Amino acid sequence: MVDRVGPLSIDRKARLQIPHEPVAKRPASVRVGDFCEVSLGYDAETAQIEATRCIQCPTPAPCQLACPLHNDIPLALWLISQGEFEQAANVFRQTSPLSEVCGRICPQEVLCQGSCTLMRRDLPVYVGKLEAFVADVQRERSGFPPPAPALPTGRRAAIVGAGPAGLAAAEELTRRGHSVTVFDAWPQPGGLLVYGIPGFKLDKRIVAQKVAYLESIGVTFVCNTLVGRDIRLDDLLDGEQFDAVFLGTGTSLPVSLDIPGEDLQGVYQSTDFLLTPSPSPPIKSGERGWGEEPRVGKNVIVIGGGDTAMDCVRTARRVQQQVGLADSRVTCVYRRSEAEMPGRAEERVNAREEGVLFEYLTAPVRFISDEEGHVRAVEFIRMQLGEPDASGRRRPVAVPGSNYVAFVDTVVCALGYRADPLVAETTPDLRVNKWGLIVVDPQTGATSRPGVYAGGDNVSGADLVVTALAAGRRAARAMDEYLRGLPVQETYTMPQVRVAANAFVER
Ligand SMILES: Cc1cc2nc3c(=O)[nH]c(=O)nc-3n(C[C@H](O)[C@H](O)[C@H](O)COP(=O)(O)OP(=O)(O)OC[C@H]3O[C@@H](n4cnc5c(N)ncnc54)[C@H](O)[C@@H]3O)c2cc1C
Question: How many separate helices (H) and strands (E) can be counted in the chain?
């Protein structure tokens, strides 16, 4: 391993003169024709130059502190600047279970890059794109590095939910010698990485490779199994002989607009809308009992202003292109102004480049049907900004008498996600708060039930991949201590779980 450079042994003034290396994107006119990734990423030469811009702040550097996983970014960037790409990837992987995913879809501008010292006078070092580059190089050259061998502990952990939180917990527990089985309601592991985030942001093959790697180190995946319906959490702990359980069930239910006409044909929730168009290899239309495949018309409106809304508008543009709809348009309708939009600016830029229109300070009042029960129009009302609300952003206030009607073919509601109460309702003594989120000890992820831990969106509310990964790892470390403290047991039989053909049917 190349040693860390001392902060005083580099010529910072010289480094400050190195211009930022921009990252190329595929042209908008080309990329709207498919679901492939937009960013072309760095190559070896540009990555080395960009990494050399890092002035090696003394550790812990601001970027490291701002990263929820506390990646040792200065060391990784030093190694990249030296051309030691695989070693740099190892540094990221020491703390990040999904480096190539975080490098692509973390909102770096408010995390590592947002706290880069260079921001005082220049663009930050593009840490995210560098992380993605070295993780890809290593994965393509030599695969995921195998874990250090661990003595089997004879302990068994069940993970409920194969999203980022569950995958992180599964990897950490396996590395510590425990036997791990992951249950998920979906046909394939990956959570929202597979069944939410579109392929133009994240190549789904990366998730499949990670899952294959986890299987290779001993993790067992049991899919199509909805815990709370096909098997209860108590059955896992009692009948199925697991010693501890991690709940990484996310927040899978859409937040409703609660206005008339939301159940009309042609009005979709983002979860359903994003499911089929993006080419997630394992998904077949209707596989999850989700109903019809979204029909995207010429005039699509997407309601919401976050990252999910951006994913929906850009997905709609691609589907319109694929089915050859001429003169089509997609409009994002948001009730505040652009300054209050919660999503990434980078995604809005991408959306605009791809031809998406934006309508601010506007909210829907009702969806209007045609004779066949299909949405035909939307009544909107104009908004103005009032005093700040609990989020610190100015509250949108309706302007009386400003209502108007606009014709539409398809509506997508992208207002966010809330917790599914199923596991809490079927698990006695599992404490949840008024939003249905699981209450945990923030240091350990321990819930009110001994031996049951939780983390990710089902604890924090809808958040980020990186925070879910951090929560999964944190809880796994606490579970490790808990498991090692249990009395020794002699026997173990493989869990017998009834696997539903389609776990989400009837829900
Ligand atoms: C459209 C969209 C775009 C996003 N874009 C970004 C982005 O660009 N960057 C970013 O950082 N974050 C993004 N996010 C947020 C990010 O995906 C989530 O914060 C993250 O996936 C949360 O991880 P998790 O493991 O907690 O939950 P999830 O990823 O939701 O995984 C939960 C898993 O639990 C399973 N499950 C739920 N209930 C049960 C049950 N009872 N029994 C069995 N299995 C169950 C589900 O099937 C699912 O597989 C986006 C989210 C969406 C919806």
Answer: 18, 16
Residues 134 and 282 in one domain: no
Q: Is 247 helix (H, G, I), strand (E, B) or coil?
A: strand
Alpha-carbon distance of 133 to 262, in angstroms, equals 43
Minimal-distance CA residue to ligand 1 atom 38: 249
> Which atom of ligand 1 is closest in space to residue 226's alpha carbon?
42
Indicate the residue among 355, 380, 415 that finishes a domain: 415
Residue 480, domain member (yes or no): yes
Q: Specify the ligand 1 atom closest to the Cα of 164.
A: 25
pTM score of the predicted model: 0.91
Pocket of ligand 1 (CB under 6 A): 105-106, 160-166, 183-186, 191-192, 196-197, 201, 226-228, 248-250, 252, 274, 307-308, 311, 420, 422-423, 456-457, 463-466, 468
* 489 domain residue, yes or no: no
Give the residue from 118, 142, 166 where a domain finishes: 142
List of residues 6+ apart from 417 with CB closer than 8 A: 250, 251, 252, 253, 254, 255, 271, 308, 457, 462
Measured between alpha carbons, how far is 287 from 289 in angstroms, rounded to an integer? 6
Determine which residue's CA is closest to atom 37 belonging to ligand 1: 249
Q: Is 395 helix (H, G, I), strand (E, B) or coil?
A: strand
Task: Give the separation between CA 137 and CA 156, rounded to whole angstroms.
Answer: 34
User: How far is the first Cα of the chain from the last one, in angstroms, to the nearest whole number?
Assistant: 52
* Ligand 1 centroid to residue 191 C-alpha, Å: 5
Which 3-state string (H, E, C) describes 41-61? CCCHHHHHHHHHCCCCCCCCC
Tell me, in angstroms, the distance from the centre of ligand 1 to residue 398's CA: 33
**pLDDT tens, 238-281?**
877 899 999 999 998 999 999 999 999 999 999 889 886 444 43
Provide the pLDDT for residue 295: 79
**Same-domain check for residues 74 and 12:** yes
Ligand 1 pocket, mutate which of 96, 197, 223 (most atoms under 8 A from CB): 197
**Span 392-426, pLDDT tens digits:** 888 999 999 999 999 999 999 999 999 999 999 99
CB contact burial 54-84 (16+ within 10 A = b; e otherwise): bbbbeeebbbbebbbbebbbbbbbbbbbeeb
Residue 496 lies in a domain: no
Give the contacts of 262 (CB within 8 A, at least 6 positions apart).
Answer: 256, 367, 413
Q: Domain count of the chain?
A: 3
Q: Pairing mode, if any, of strands 179-183 and 220-222?
A: parallel
Report d(CA 216, CA 210) in Å as an integer: 10
